[in-house]
Amino acid sequence: MLRPFLRAKIHRAQVTRSELHYVGSITVDAELLAAADMLPLEEVEVYNITRGTRFSTYCIPGKPGSGEIGINGAAAHLAHVGDLVIICAYCFLDREELPHHRARVVLVDEGNRVGQVLLKTPFDEPA
């Protein structure tokens, strides 16, 4: 049986742009996408820490090193400039794949740049 597991996460990024009249998606600094191993057009879930909202969309790469986190299209109603968000991608795994699974967690600094990359497993001890 396949079950959904966290594959990648960009943690506590700050929204730098929110543009309602744009063809949907979330624009993410290409360096953050690379650190998280997220690909352009990959589906992601976005959790807004500031407002408590959440939505699904897909990634498009922003200028490398820009720190850009842009909320585009209808999702702009759910996240505004200055909001803190978590961006997650998931994968489906069966039990046999779990010992080899490592989720990438990218902690960002105040400028939306890579601060630290953690590798998490389903077997990690609780924090």
From TrEMBL:
Pathway: Cofactor biosynthesis; (R)-pantothenate biosynthesis; beta-alanine from L-aspartate: step 1/1. It comes from the Bacteria. The active site is at S25 (schiff-base intermediate with substrate), Y58 (proton donor). The modification Pyruvic acid (Ser) is found at S25. Its cofactor is pyruvate. Is synthesized initially as an inactive proenzyme, which is activated by self-cleavage at a specific serine bond to produce a beta-subunit with a hydroxyl group at its C-terminus and an alpha-subunit with a pyruvoyl group at its N-terminus. Its main location: cytoplasm. Gene3D superfamilies: 2.40.40.20. Substrate binds at T57, G73, A74, A75. InterPro entries: Asp_de-COase-like_dom_sf, Asp_decarbox. GO terms for molecular function: aspartate 1-decarboxylase activity. Keywords: Autocatalytic cleavage, Cytoplasm, Decarboxylase, Lyase, Pantothenate biosynthesis, Pyruvate, Schiff base, Zymogen. It is found in: Cytoplasm. Binds 1 pyruvoyl group covalently per subunit. HAMAP family: PanD (MF_00446). Heterooctamer of four alpha and four beta subunits. Belongs to the PanD family. Catalyzes the pyruvoyl-dependent decarboxylation of aspartate to produce beta-alanine. This is Aspartate 1-decarboxylase. It comes from Thermoanaerobaculum aquaticum.
